[in-house]
């Protein structure tokens, strides 16, 4: 036994042996084990979204087995309805343009029926000649972040309320506050006049049809980007469109004005919905994106032909926009989807497809912007209203005239309160229901 005051072994052989043993044990983890048990989710997909590989961490979050996922599901199958729409209209186009996209907030569906908030980053893997081969995606659990952001928002609201109360108590600033409020009022009035110039003052009368419209501006002090229109093409055909440009303020107003007049002019030249959207795509791309200032919009363009008797026909095409709904007189609700439509103005040439429908007596067509489906609901305003909820709402009110439907949706929007934080536009076209002729009075009725 050595003395208590004896110097340690100067060679340090014992300590180095222990450290080496620990390091060796750590290195026994294979790359596959590190991939499977990583603190985040990993998956690789083919270019059509088919899942080719997924790690155990992500499978555990989803509550799914590997055999039920790999080669059987696409990445979009793991997303909620709103996430699928966002992936098709924003995520996938930007990934194809940029080669990578990071930090996108989405929600995954889990087997117990819940939703998992996540942050998604994807990168394209390319071949030696630059052709895309597959997509590698990293998924981070954002549950704690979502709660943290909600807490920050709550504290911010409390701080703003405290500042407002303190400001109110300062008597010496009352006159300045009144002057500032007067300036804000004048600004809101000026912006309101400008906003109205970007929208039709009223809808024209379409023979044999009912029409209704509603527009909600998210802020009285900032120009919005939603737009709509209804106009005659010839004696029996009427063009209509509804959409949403990117951004806010004067630049969005300029883009809205260009979009409206381009679609009107295109329809008068050739009323085919695909041609109209293709013309708008070329104009926006040449005017903005090709010059390094990408600006785009989502839009639904349609033509209704009233020359077909009591059942007008409708053809619509969509560019990155939520699908139109058709409320039938039977109480059924149909989604008039146009798959494949990309954001208008992003790419030099974008594919658009048409969908058609016939409106019988009592049927109503509804167009809307995503301010409705992306309104935040729930106690913490942490959930989106969503396409499924809107479909259920429409089914609960079908059949309905154009005005009845817009009035019901206006009440729904007002009920969102502060959760409605985006501009929203609604446009409805319906065919009046056939009312039975009154029965002639008889002696038994007297």
- Straight-line N-to-C gap: 126 Å
Strand order of the largest sheet: 2-1-5-4-3
Percent range of helical residues: 25-40%
Fraction in beta strands: 15-25%
Structural class: alpha+beta
What value does the average pLDDT take?
85
The secondary-structure element order is HHEEHHEEEHHEEEHHEEEEEEHEEHHE
Low-confidence stretches: 187-191
Sum up the overall morphology in one term: globular
**What is the overall number of helices?**
11
Radius of gyration: 29 Å
Major beta sheet summary = 5 strands, antiparallel
Overall number of strands: 17
Short summary:
With 446 residues, the chain is an alpha+beta fold.
Secondary-structure map:
Elements (H helix, E strand, L loop, with lengths): L12 H14 L4 H6 L4 E6 L4 E4 L1 H7 L18 H18 L1 E10 L5 E12 L5 E10 L1 H27 L4 H24 L12 E7 L9 E7 L4 E9 L3 H21 L3 H15 L9 E9 L7 E7 L4 E4 L5 E4 L17 E5 L5 E5 L1 H4 L2 E2 L5 E2 L1 H12 L4 H15 L7 E7 L16
Antiparallel strand pairs: 1-2, 1-5, 3-4, 4-5, 6-17, 7-8, 8-9, 9-10, 10-13, 11-12, 11-14, 14-17, 15-16
Helix pairs in contact: 7-8
Descriptive report:
By secondary structure, this protein is α+β, with helices and mostly antiparallel strands. 37% of the residues lie in helices and 25% in strands. It has helices at residues 13-26, 31-36, 56-62, 81-98, 143-169, 174-197, 249-269, 273-287, 370-373, 386-397, 402-416, and strands spanning 41-46, 51-54, 100-109, 115-126, 132-141, 210-216, 226-232, 237-245, 297-305, 313-319, 324-327, 333-336, 354-358, 364-368, 376-377, 383-384, 424-430. It is globular and about 90 Å long. Residues 187-191 have low confidence and may be disordered.
């Amino acid at each position: 036994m050595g003395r208590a005051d004896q110097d340690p072994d100067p060679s340090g052989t014992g300590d180095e042996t222990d450290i080496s043993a620990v390091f060796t044990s750590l290195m026994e983890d294979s790359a596959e084990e590190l991939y499977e048990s990583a603190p985040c989710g990993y998956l690789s997909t083919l270019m059509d979204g088919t899942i080719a590989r997924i790690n155990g961490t992500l499978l555990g979050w989803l509550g799914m087995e590997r055999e039920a996922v790999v080669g059987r599901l696409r990445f979009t199958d793991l997303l909620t309805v709103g996430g699928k729409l966002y992936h098709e209209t924003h995520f996938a186009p930007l990934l194809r343009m940029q080669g990578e996209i990071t930090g996108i907030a989405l929600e995954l569906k889990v087997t117990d029926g819940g939703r998992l908030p996540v942050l998604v980053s994807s990168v394209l893997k390319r071949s030696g000649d630059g052709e895309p081969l597959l997509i590698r995606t990293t998924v981070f659990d954002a549950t704690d972040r979502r709660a943290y952001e909600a807490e920050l928002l709550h504290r911010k609201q409390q701080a703003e309320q405290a500042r407002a109360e303190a400001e109110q108590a300062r008597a010496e600033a009352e006159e300045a506050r009144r002057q500032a409020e007067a300036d804000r009022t004048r600004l809101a009035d000026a912006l309101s006049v400008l906003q109205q110039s970007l929208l039709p003052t009223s809808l024209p009368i379409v023979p044999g049809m009912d029409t209704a419209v509603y527009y909600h501006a998210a802020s009285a002090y900032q120009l919005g980007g939603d737009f709509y229109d209804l106009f005659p093409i010839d004696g029996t055909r009427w063009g209509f469109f509804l959409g949403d440009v990117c951004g806010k303020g004067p630049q969005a107003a300029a883009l809205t004005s260009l979009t409206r007049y381009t679609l009107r002019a295109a329809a008068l030249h050739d009323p085919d919905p695909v041609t109209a959207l293709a013309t708008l795509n070329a104009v926006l791309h040449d005017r903005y994106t090709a010059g390094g200032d990408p600006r785009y919009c989502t839009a639904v363009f349609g033509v209704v032909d009233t020359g077909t008797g009591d059942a007008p026909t409708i053809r619509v095409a969509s560019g990155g926009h939520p699908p139109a709904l058709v409320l039938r007189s039977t109480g059924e609700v149909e989604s008039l989807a146009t798959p494949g439509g990309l954001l208008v103005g992003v790419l030099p040439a974008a594919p658009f497809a048409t969908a058609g429908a016939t409106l019988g007596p009592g049927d109503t067509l509804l167009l809307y912007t995503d301010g409705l489906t992306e309104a935040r609901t729930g106690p913490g305003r942490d959930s989106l209203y969503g396409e499924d909820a809107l479909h259920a709402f429409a089914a609960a009110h079908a059949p309905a005239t154009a005005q009845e439907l817009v009035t019901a949706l206006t009440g729904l929007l007002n009920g969102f309160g502060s959760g409605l934080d985006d501009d929203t536009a609604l446009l409805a076209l319906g065919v009046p229901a056939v009312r039975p002729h009154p029965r002639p009075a008889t002696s038994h009725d007297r």
